[in-house]
Design brief:
With 347 residues, the chain is an alpha/beta fold. The protein is built from eleven helices and twelve strands. This is Aldo/keto reductase.
Length: 347
């Protein structure tokens, strides 16, 4: 039975989170950049951006317990004060472990760890339940069945409403779904990141699982605001991202300019065109926009008014061929950890 949030959503619209899941806003707000990864963020502006998102009808708010080592969840609790809890659909990722200096030091998805992580998230968020709970990465030392089984117990206890996955491949999706219905898979999907189209997307569609797409602007490359002379701050992980390095960056910015030509013909920005392209890939796909300011949020919301014809989509394909993107989406050490990037052996 499909459930819906109590809040009315008008112009932004809704999409269903899985075959039997809830209705959430057509766009979600990813909160990571308000605490981590992209350099310092303005706390007051972050909270104002969350408030603006809620006022515009965005209900899906995506966070992680390791974003800023708990900072992001506490920021969200502060932003939601005075707002009805049912107006926010809170999605939390867990499992990534970090040292005091911010380095990632592993993944822990053991059943007892799952329950421990959830307890702290509930406290930091100031809520009695998480709407969607998902392991951030596959733990190579723990069968996915054990992890999902532990979250299923938390569903039964009322602490979690729905179960999701993040950055896993088709085989893992099937194994997890056999234990408990999976509402959504969070994974990178953008004009610059189309790896899911071969096997993962057909699998989620077969099983009735939605996609929440992060990285829709490829960490700012597809925002239309990045140039090769722009330097990332010391704490910005793009310093180590292959797509932002040397000749890779030069090639990728050429693709951005090709997309800009198409966008300008439509009277929209590069970012709006990039988000609208993801929206056009199917109603089972919900883009997560990582806006850290109200200005960027407003720009992203403009993508909802963009309609592409078949001719427009063909133009975009010619401007940004998937095989023309230079560099992997993560540094080699991180790519190695992604279950979604592992290729199934040919039998």
């Amino acid at each position: 039975m499909t459930t819906a949030l109590n809040t009315p959503i008008s112009s932004i619209g809704t999409r269903q989170l899985g075959k039997n899941g809830p209705q959430v806003s057509t766009l979600g707000l990813g909160l990571m950049g308000m605490s981590d990864m992209y350099g310092p963020a303005d706390r007051a502006e972050s909270i104002a951006t969350i408030h603006e998102a809620l006022e515009k009808g965005i209900t899906l708010l995506d966070t992680g317990d390791f974003y800023g080592m708990g900072h992001n969840e506490m920021l969200l609790q502060e932003a939601l004060k005075g707002h009805p809890r049912e107006n926010a659909f809170i999605a939390v990722k867990f499992g990534a472990m970090r040292s005091p200096d911010g380095q990632f030091v592993g993944v822990d998805s053991r059943p007892q760890a799952v329950k421990n992580f959830l307890s702290y998230s509930l406290k930091r968020l100031g809520t009695d339940h998480i709407d969607l709970y998902q392991p951030s990465r596959l733990d190579p030392n723990v069968p996915i069945e054990d992890t999902i089984g532990a979250i299923a117990e938390l569903v039964q206890a009322g602490y979690v409403r729905h179960i999701g996955l993040s950055e896993v491949g088709a085989d893992t999706i099937r194994r997890a779904h056999a234990v408990h219905p999976i509402a959504q898979l969070q994974i990178e999907y953008a004009l610059f990141s189309r790896g899911i189209e071969a096997e993962i997307l057909p699998t989620t569609r077969e099983l009735g699982i939605a996609i929440t797409a992060y990285g829709v602007l490829s960490r700012g490359l597809l925002s239309g605001h990045w140039n090769k002379d722009r330097a990332a701050t010391a704490s910005d992980f793009r310093n180590h991202s292959p797509r932002f390095q040397g000749e890779n960056l030069d090639q990728n910015l050429k693709l951005v300019e090709a997309l800009r030509s198409v966008a300008e013909q439509k009277g929209v920005t590069v970012a709006q065109a990039a988000i609208a392209w993801v929206l056009s890939r199917g109603t089972d796909i919900i883009p997560l926009i990582g806006a850290r300011t109200r200005t960027r949020l407003q720009e992203a919301l403009g993508s909802l008014d963009v309609q592409f014809s078949e001719a427009d989509l063909e133009q975009i394909e010619k401007a940004v061929p998937a095989e023309a993107v230079a560099g992997e989406r993560y540094a080699p050490a991180m790519m190695h950890l992604l279950d979604s990037e592992k290729k199934n052996p040919v039998v």
